[in-house]
């Protein structure tokens, strides 16, 4: 080993530790005594593999748990990129495109792997072990809601039937109270919220409101709108953002809905979901019409949001 090189490294280390009032020699002792790092410690593998804990003895329940966990990790990757767009001050279009493309590649993994759920479990087992997880539901995925909050201002997440009555002039709290998923989990006749929703609100409302306030003028949609005109016109960026919108609000929801159709319909009748929504009316993207970046579409595209895809899967004769 080149001694000069090591001497220079040591003087740099001395500088580093002196600057923070620390003693290099003590740190070198630490280096001497430290164990070598292993793969399993570095990625906390034992912890990761210890958290698939079924509540019944049906073997397929483990697939169900694990695939939810895998999806949550991808949601975390998506949020990781979204936060970097939100925090960006440079307005560099290439940076924006790169982050949006990464998000899209995560969605593509989730969309193409959803067959693990749709085809990969025995229906008979599912029908039984699902009873052991009531009233839990993927509906309670806080990261799914955070992805929406980072993507677009709250007024775009208000339930479609009353979205036209709201704008950025409404308070965060008011908009949040009318968000589409709260309505979906409220009994239309009695006005009573499902237990699934009540528990979710109790656990996550403060955190979601904090995020909504934090990104009040800096969601991904704002970041796009604040770009100089020539950057806003960038075709690659527009395509990447549209793909993100359609992945998040049409393609993933459709794959997911495919699993609800596979497991929760019998003789054309709807079986109650664990989260208690009227899911056939709640889940379809053309009913929810959640659009993160509405300015990027024509009126007609917005009117048909998610429709042709839904027809493609469920009413092929109409396409
Ligand atoms: C057999 C597999 C699955 C079935 C049958 C299913 C069914 C449902 C149903 C019926 C709902 C509506 C809420 C309710 O009433 O419970 C729902 C919501 C939801 N599920 Fe699943 N789900 C499955 C797998 C997954 C997976 C793997 C994830 C990944 C995290 C997930 C995430 C979600 C999310 C985020 C929502 C809320 C969607 C929205 O508000 O638009 N689900 N699910």
From TrEMBL:
<dbReference type="InterPro" id="IPR037217">
    <property type="entry name" value="Trp/Indoleamine_2_3_dOase-like"/>
</dbReference>
<dbReference type="InterPro" id="IPR004981">
    <property type="entry name" value="Trp_2_3_dOase"/>
</dbReference>
<protein>
    <submittedName>
        <fullName>Tryptophan 2,3-dioxygenase</fullName>
    </submittedName>
</protein>
<dbReference type="Pfam" id="PF03301">
    <property type="entry name" value="Trp_dioxygenase"/>
</dbReference>
């Amino acid at each position: 080993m080149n001694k000069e090189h090591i001497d220079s490294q040591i003087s740099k280390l001395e500088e580093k530790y002196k600057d923070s009032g620390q003693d290099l020699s003590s740190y070198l002792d630490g280096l001497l005594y430290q164990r070598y790092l292993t793969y399993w410690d570095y990625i906390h593998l034992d912890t990761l593999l210890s958290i698939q804990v079924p509540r019944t003895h049906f073997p397929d329940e483990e697939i169900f748990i694990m695939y939810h966990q895998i999806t949550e990790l991808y949601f975390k990757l998506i949020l990781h990129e979204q936060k970097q767009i939100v925090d960006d001050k440079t307005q560099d279009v290439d940076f924006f495109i790169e982050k949006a493309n990464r998000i899209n590649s995560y969605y593509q993994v989730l969309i193409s792997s959803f067959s693990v759920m749709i085809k990969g479990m025995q229906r008979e087992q599912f029908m039984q072990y699902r009873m052991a997880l009531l009233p839990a539901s993927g509906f309670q995925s806080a990261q799914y809601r955070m992805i929406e909050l980072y993507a677009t201002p709250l007024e775009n997440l208000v339930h479609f039937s009353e979205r036209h009555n709201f704008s950025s002039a409404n308070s965060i709290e008011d908009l949040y109270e009318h968000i589409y998923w709260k309505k979906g989990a409220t009994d239309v006749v009695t006005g009573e919220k499902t237990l699934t929703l009540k528990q979710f609100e109790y656990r996550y409302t403060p955190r979601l409101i904090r995020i909504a306030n934090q990104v009040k003028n800096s969601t991904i949609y704002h970041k796009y709108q604040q770009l100089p005109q020539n950057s806003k016109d960038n075709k690659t960026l527009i395509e990447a953002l549209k793909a993100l919108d359609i992945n998040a609000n049409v393609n993933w929801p459709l794959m997911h809905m495919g699993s609800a159709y596979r497991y929760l319909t019998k003789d054309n009748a709807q079986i109650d979901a664990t989260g208690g929504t009227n899911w056939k009316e709640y889940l379809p993207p053309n009913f929810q019409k959640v659009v993160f970046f509405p300015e990027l579409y024509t009126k007609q595209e917005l009117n048909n949001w998610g429709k042709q895809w839904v027809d493609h899967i469920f009413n092929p004769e109409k396409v």
